[in-house]
Each structure stands twice: as C-alpha cells, then as structure tokens.
Amino acid sequence: MRIPCPYCGTRDAHEFGYLGDATTRRPDGGDPFDQVHIRDNPAGPHEELWYHGAGCRRWLVVSRDTRTHAITGARFAKEPA
Prior knowledge:
Elements: E1 2-5, E2 9-12, E3 17-21, H1 32-37, E4 45-51, E5 59-65, E6 71-76
Antiparallel strand pairs: 1-2, 3-4, 4-5, 5-6
C-alpha cells in the first residue's frame, strides 16, 4: 500500500505507523472498557490516523476504503477537514 504524504510525496506504508480511527471522539463518561475496546469496524470509506515516522514525522489523516485499501487522499492532522 502506498500513502500520499502531503510533505514527502507518495511513500510505502512501511514508513508509517497506524493509530486508528481519525473520527473517534472521547466520550464524556460511561464505561472505560467500552471507550477503549468497543469500536466500530466500518466497511467502506474511512478516515484513519497515520504517523510518518520514517519521513517528515507528522501525523496524517488518510482517507482509505477498508474493503479495497484504495487511498483517496491524505492531509496533515492539524489541517481542517
């Protein structure tokens, strides 16, 4: 899989570390177990957080289809959607 870094250009996924869902928000209470372990497993377009550790060392939000692994875009995590 190749990830398009906005700063470094398109790179192999091995240069990146995967964190998870970029749309998850911390809830205001509830069971801590559910907050950590109970997650959706979406099929289709999804935004994920990736860290470019072997490159610019920045966090990216990558738009990826979880069924095909096709990446439709990437932006720096601090940029607005």
